[in-house]
Amino acid sequence: MSDPEPKTESQKGLLSAIASLIIWGLFPVYFVATAAVPAVEMVAHRVVWSLPVGLLVLLILHQWKPLVAIFRAPKTLLYLTIAALLLAVNWGVYIYAIQIEQIFQGSLGYYINPLLNVFVGFLIFRERFSALQIVAVAFATIGVLILGLYGGVFPWLSIILGTTFCAYAATRKVVEVPAMAGLMVEVLVLLLPALAYLGWLAGQGQLSFGQDLTLSLLLLLAGPLTLIPLLLYVFAARRVRFSTLGIIQFLGPTLQFACGLYYGETFTTAHAWCFGFIWLGVAIFAFDAAAQTRRPISTPSA
């Protein structure tokens, strides 16, 4: 008789992943509203305003001891430092993409990311790699190449977004720390550079915060909007298969794509072919993932 607890944890992880991706999928709305703030400054605000929110959550969850323990474990601290740097790059590139009206490229990056998870899941975590997953990745690759060759610009923003977030998720998966404690370490790693940069902007009279009430309130929201989906996603990454995150993760870029249409971003023929192949790959990937969940899990021989 199977133990119901792992299944319960898996279900919690699934719901957490869906919630995080809905929030991320609607991020273009927030970053369009704060488009007056340069991308690097916005990253700094996300870090700084995440600190009080994170401290409050740590207090509620009583995770001070795990936080202190991380700073006593050099290897864990190194992994989380790498994760923090990957996250900062991912944030900055995504905000920049939206600000230059490249929401579709942002969406494409997060369509690519789950398919990259398949490779990482196979190469690093020894997860099974099915024939249909290979086909799905091949279609996605064709879509990216079409946009690069015939769309007039290589989707380098998409590539950076997909690879950095895949690397971030993989790094966090191998770190055995509570989700919130790990996230707070990432925030603390980035905090001093963020404060220094905002201080420099203030000295130059270029700090966005405080110049407009509405914009300042929106910047204050950067904290909860940053930490809540990340906490949900990291919680999920520890409880579901790495490759399974792929099928759920398509929700985020689909909502981002819808935002691009809503804001009237130019959708070219090259975009249509690119996303057509991507969506075909997604459909194959989703079909394969759904089929695998119905199969009984065989226990490998010792």
Key descriptive features of the protein:
single chain, disordered N terminus, 14 helices, mainly alpha
Description:
By secondary structure, this protein is mostly helical. Helices cover 78% and strands 0% of the residues. It is built from 14 helices and no strands. Mean pLDDT is 84; it is low at 1-5 and 297-302.
What form results from the Cα inertia axes? globular
Number of strands: 0
Evaluate the radius of gyration: 20 Å
Mean pLDDT: 84
Cα distance, first to last residue? 21 Å
The number of distinct helices, counting runs of at least 4 residues, comes to: 14
Protein structure class:
mainly alpha
Taken as a percent bin, the fraction of beta residues is: under 5%
Low-confidence stretches: 1-5, 297-302
> Approximately how much helix is present in the residues?
over 70%
Largest sheet: none
Topology as a string of helices (H) and strands (E):
HHHHHHHHHHHHHH
